[in-house]
Every structure is written in C-alpha cells, then in structure tokens.
Amino acid sequence: MSDDSSGSIAARNERGADRGVDGGTSRLRGTDRSAVSESTTGATAASRTASPPGEALLEIRGLKKHFPLTQGIVFKRTVGHVRAVDGVDLTMRRGETVGLVGESGCGKSTVSKLLVALERPTDGQILYKGRDVARMSGRALKAYRREVQIIFQDPYASLNPRMTVGDIVSEGWAVHADIAPKKGRLQRTQELLDRVGLNPDYVNRYPHQFSGGQRQRIGIARALALRPEVIVCDEPVSALDVSVQAQVVNLLEDVQDEFGLSYLFIAHDLSVVRHISDRVAVMYLGSIVEEGTDAQVYGSPSHPYTQALLSSVPLHEPHLRGQKDRILLQGDVPSPADPPSGCRFRTRCWKAQDICAQEAPALVDRGQGHASACHFAEARTVVPVDVE
Ligand SMILES: Nc1ncnc2c1ncn2[C@@H]1O[C@H](COP(=O)(O)OP(=O)(O)O)[C@@H](O)[C@H]1O
Ligand code: SF4
Ligand SMILES: [Mg+2]
User: Fold this and answer.
1) CA of 187 to the centre of ligand 3 (A)
2) Ligand 1: which of 66, 69, 82, 266 to mutate, most ligand atoms within 8 Å of CB?
3) Are the C-beta atoms of 51 and 96 separated by less than 8 Å?
4) Is the Cβ–Cβ distance between 37 and 259 less than 8 Å?
5) For bias kind Low complexity, which ranges apply (predicted)?
C-alpha cells in the first residue's frame, strides 16, 4: 500500500477516472458536501439521539461461534465442531476505528457475520448501546440491522449482477422506508453515488460495467444509504489492486467524520489496518491475542504472533529496510476443529514453555501498557518506524 500522501493523490485520480469513463461530468459536482450528507442521511451525525462521543457503542463479550462438523449423507452425525470464534472480547467506541487483523481462517469474517446478525452466537454477547443484540426483536432488531452495516471483501460477489446500481444502493429503503420518502429516492441515490466518487448518471448501469474499486464504492454507498452508525468493513480492500486499495481506504476515512461513523476494519495485512485504525486487535485461531492503540501494537508489540506478523510487513522507507527484525514463523495454522491445548499459538511459538501447553494465557496487561495473551509477554521493537 502506498503512503498517505500518494494515496490521497491516487484517490483523487481514481475519482476523476471514475467519472470520466464516458467523458460525462457530474452535475452534482460542487454541491456543498455537508448539504449532501445531511440530505442523503436525513440527519447530521450531531443531531442523532445517540450515545455521546467515547462511549462504548459495541461491546463483544466472550463471543463464540462453533460450527458443527457432520458426517453421513442421509443420517447426519455431528463428529466435532469448528471453533471459528472462540472467546472474543472487543469494545468499539463512538467515532473510533478498530482494526481486526489475523491470517486467513482465524475467524474474522465469522466475527463480522455475528456482528451484523447474519449468524447467531454459540455463546457470549454482543451489546449495542448497552443492549444485548440476541435479545432484540421487532423494532429494536430492525433498527440494529439498519444501524450496523457491512461492506464485504469481494466486490464482485457482493453486488447482485441483475440489479442496477441505483436499485442496489436504494434496496434497503424498501424495508426502512422512513429514511427516504419515495419521491426523492432517485435524487438521494445520485447524491450518494456522487459522494462516493461515482458519476450519478451511472445509476442505471449494472455492476459488471464497473471496476473492482468502483464496485467497492457502490458497496459503500449502499451501506451509507441506511444512515448507519457502525460499518463492519470485512477486508474491503483485500480483493483490490494495490493501487486502488489506498483510494478506497481514503474514501472510508473521508466519510467517517461526515457521517459520524465507527468502523470495525478487518484485514489480514497489518499495514492496511495501520493506516486507518485508532486501536488494533490481533486475532489468532478464534481469539484476540493482543490489543492496544496503533502506537502500542506497531511500536511495541508484546505477543510473539504480532511480532511475527509485523516482521512480514513490507517497509516503504528504503533506509529502514535493513533494520527490520525478521521473524520467520514455522508450521501452519492448526485446525480450528482441533486447536492446541493451552496457548493456541504454542505450536508455532519460539518462546513456548511447559506452562503454555497447560494454561491458556488471559488477554491482560502484564506491564507492557496494553493487553497481550502471552504468559511471557515482552515488548519488542520489530519495525523501526515512527508509527504516527
Ligand atoms: N458456515 C461455516 N461452516 C463451517 N465452518 C465454517 C463456516 N464459516 C466459516 N467456517 C470456518 O471457520 C473458520 C474461520 O473462518 P472465517 O471466519 O471465514 O475466517 P477469516 O475471515 O479470518 O478468513 C475457518 O476454518 C472456516 O473454514
Ligand atoms: S503463551 Fe507461550 S506459546 Fe503462547 S505466545 Fe506466549 S510464549 Fe508463546
Ligand atoms: Mg474473511
């Protein structure tokens, strides 16, 4: 991923390119941004009757999702469970971006599906503004489903190919009709397209007529259409070319303040999350192994897994390249159907001792200033860069 400044320039370039596909210019260009955001959202962020800044918006407590492993075609027997999510604790405050990072298969998407109520937890709780989502029904559940939106990883699979872009963006208003009166829906849809950097005249086009980056912009417009408070971004840039990744991240950052959003930003690459997150949680085999501010996790990682992940992040500063602490991880990620006893990282950890096989380390601060799930947590500088 490119650095901040080149990313911003690239974003402006792509926005220009998006609009310029047919040489058309946006008739909404130059519209006052705050006016657009107010009319597209129907309310400014400040005018919402919501929890004050800094207050916990989403609290995940001991969250578990175990999928049954079955055998047999006619008579299915459960022969085990895939512990996709196995005890996750995480808090997201209003206006905050929490980065969730970990290798493929560690349970990130399952956490995101649980958060948007596409899956039901096996155990644990998700509290939204203090209320247990599992106990919500009727109006409260409907409001929750509107306020917590998701952007998916694959912009090719997440948009219905038979629907026009306009129908995709406005689809949610069929259920949440109060957000957009029928009369003004076309204009609102076009305002949203304009806001995410697409030509509003493309409202009748189909997803296949757009590039990957543009499709992800459509996904963002679809989420914004419902005036959400939280957007779960499940690897929103992982499927995009590196040159386009920064543009989409910049767009998400741009709309965050304007729409009063909080993000859970998921990625498998620490460098992507570093750009956007206030706090970072590192996940391994179904649970969080380290959590702290971006400065803590990048500047003084104290869990061996975080240290190994950081050591594999490419450095853009040529003069620093030789100074990186290289840690090569041995072995593969164990199966979540049969995780190791004690510390789940022990089969790949160079610091493992007997206690690591016997006792699962709690995610607590052992003197490093932030939480780490390691019996022998020890801050180590892996990447010699100014994390600010
Ligand atoms: N519906 C499901 N049924 C069975 N296993 C699943 C299901 N969804 C995910 N898994 C398994 O759960 C684990 C975590 O998957 P996922 O949450 O998609 O990880 P990530 O998003 O971090 O790559 C994987 O081993 C995956 O195969
Ligand atoms: S608890 Fe033990 S095995 Fe786990 S990360 Fe720490 S040292 Fe390694
Ligand atoms: Mg995933």
Assistant:
1) 34
2) 82
3) no
4) yes
5) 34-51
* Token pair for 272: 């992507």
DSSP 198: S
The closest ligand to the CA of 103 turns out to be: 1
| The one-letter amino acid at 136 | M
Selected from 3.30.300.30, 3.40.50.2000, 3.40.50.300, 2.60.120.280, the CATH number assigned to the domain covering 56-70+78-277 reads 3.40.50.300
Check: pTM over 0.70? Answer yes or no: yes
CA dist list (Å): 50 to 64, 225, 329? 28, 18, 44
How far is it, in rounded angstroms, from Cα 11 to Cα 382? 30
Where does the chain hold its CATH 3.40.50.300 domain(s)?
56-70+78-277
Mean pLDDT is lowest, of 43-57, 207-221, 329-343, 367-381, for: 43-57
pLDDT in tens, 41-59: 444 444 444 555 578 999 9
